[in-house]
Amino acid sequence: MRKTILSIIGVLLIITSIFFAKSLIASKNKPKPILEKVVKTVFIDTVKNSQIQIEIPGNGSLVAKRRVEIYSEVQGVFKTSNVLFKPGQMYKVGQTLISIDASEYYATVQSAKSNLYNAIAAIMPDLRLDFPEVYQKWQQYLNAFDLSKTAPKLPEITSEKENYFITGRGIVSSYYNLKNLEQRLSKYTIKAPFTGILTEALVTEGTLVRNGQKLGEFIDPSQYEMEVAISKSFASLLKVGEEVRLNNLDKTNFYTGKISRVNGSIDKTTQTITTYIDVKNPKLKEGVYLEANIKGEIVKDAIEIDRNLLLEDNQIFVLAKGMLNTIPVTPVYFSDTKVVLKGVPNGTIILKRPVPGAYVGMLAKPFDANANQ
Predict the structure, then answer these.
(1) Residue percentage of the chain with pLDDT more than 70
(2) The whole model's pTM is what?
(3) Residue 130 has what pLDDT?
(4) Is the model's pLDDT at 373 over the cut of 50?
(5) Residue 176, H or E segment
(6) Are the C-beta atoms of residues 292 and 244 closer than 8 Å to each other?
(7) Looking at residue 121, what is its pLDDT?
(8) Residue 171: phi, psi to the nearest 5?
(9) Does domain 67-101+188-219 have CATH number 1.10.287.1770?
(10) Can you tell me the distance from the alpha carbon of 363 to that of 355, in angstroms, rounded to the nearest whole number?
């Protein structure tokens, strides 16, 4: 029995070995699978050299070109007026911004004015006797003298004797003392130097205003100025009067400005030159942040592509005979997103978008928009 079982197991092993050997022989005779070539679809563009206008980027905030910080040169109580001294209030040129109570000082001015009038009146009899030739002009001066108005200019002294006589009576010193008082009296009323808007108000009606105190800020909202820092390499391209394109950060609003001034020195720390751009637009407000594009030189026989298409060794990919290759180029100008190149022959097919993992010799074909329709 034992011999029979062993004989059966031996026969089964032999049969299994025969089938295994046949399967190995059959597997060797199978043909190897043919790998399908992968052709990458790429977006392309055909080179057509032209004139490229270089634009120098910049940015900054708008500041009113005409701005006045209002300070008080006298002391007194801020008087109430028909127009409230509040931020956003519009004033026309010559309109009173602030009026400070000057009743006490006004009395001092009137007293000095009266003293001058009395001093001139006191010398009139002597002028009639000793200087009859100048009596008439001094009499006319007295007749035109009005205590409610500023003192008129003294008559012109035409002779040395007249000068000694008038000066010796203290008339000239009294006159200039009065004019000094009148000048200070005018500082109790602050008028708008131009038509504009109040942007800051630090006092209100009834406030005690002190000498040297800041009262507010006043600007002209019709014209703004933007300060832009430009790289020193573009200093030769900046021209006063050149038009500048401006836009907001969202690129939804566009404006036109002009270069008004260019600083004569370069910042040692940043190696930039400060450029000032004037812009007028009723929609703009002080503090608005804008981007500027200043026109630079025109580069002939050049193309402009995305910066991410330029390789590290100043080469770009081209499509020729169904595969990618590279050619050397000469970068002329870099912006934040673009680069201007020279040295690319007309008709060359280049990539329009970068291809991940691209290499020289990669099989590629142009994207056909009609193939997906």
Answers:
(1) 90
(2) 0.67
(3) 84
(4) no
(5) helix 171-186
(6) yes
(7) 92
(8) -65, -45
(9) no
(10) 12
Are the C-beta atoms of 140 and 154 separated by less than 8 Å?
Answer: no
Arch. (CATH architecture) of 42-52+300-372: Beta Barrel (2.40)
- Could you identify the residue written with the tokens 């006159």? 175
Strand, helix or coil for residue 299: strand
Backbone angles phi, psi at 38, to 5 degrees: -95, 120
Domain boundaries, the chain: 1-30, 42-52+300-372, 67-101+188-219, 103-186
Map residue 326 onto helix, strand or coil: strand
Q: Are 226 and 292 in contact (CB under 8 A)?
A: yes
User: Tens of pLDDT along 97-123?
Assistant: 999 999 999 999 999 999 999 999 999
CB contact at 8 A, 326 and 316: yes
Q: Which single residue is written with the structure tokens 């034992």?
A: 2
Is the Cα torsion angle 19, 22, 27, 31 positive or negative in sign? negative
336-351 b/e (C-beta count within 10 Å ≥ 16 → b): eebbbbeebeeebebb
- The angle at the Cα of 51, spanning 49 to 55, to the nearest 5 degrees, equals 125
Going by pLDDT thresholds of 50, 70 and 90, the confidence category of residue 2 is: low
CA–CA distances in Å: residue 280 to residues 93, 114, 196, 257 = 19, 51, 14, 7
**Contact of 40 with 322, CB cutoff 8 Å:** no
b/e per residue, 48-60, with b = 16+ CB within 10 A? ebeebebbbebeb
Of 228, 226, 230, the C-alpha closest to 285 is: 226
Q: For residue range 23-44, what is the model confidence (pLDDT) as tens digits?
A: 666 555 555 555 456 788 889 8
Q: For residue 139, what are its two tokens?
A: 């009499």
d(CA 190, CA 95): 9
Q: What is the mean pLDDT of residues 275-298?
A: 90
DSSP secondary structure of 52-118: EEEEEEEEEEEEESSEEEEE-SS-EEB---SS---TT-EE-TT-EEEEB--HHHHHHHHHHHHHHHH
Query: Which pLDDT tens digit goes with each residue over 183-211?
Result: 999 999 999 999 999 999 999 999 999 99
Q: Is 185 helix (H, G, I), strand (E, B) or coil?
A: helix
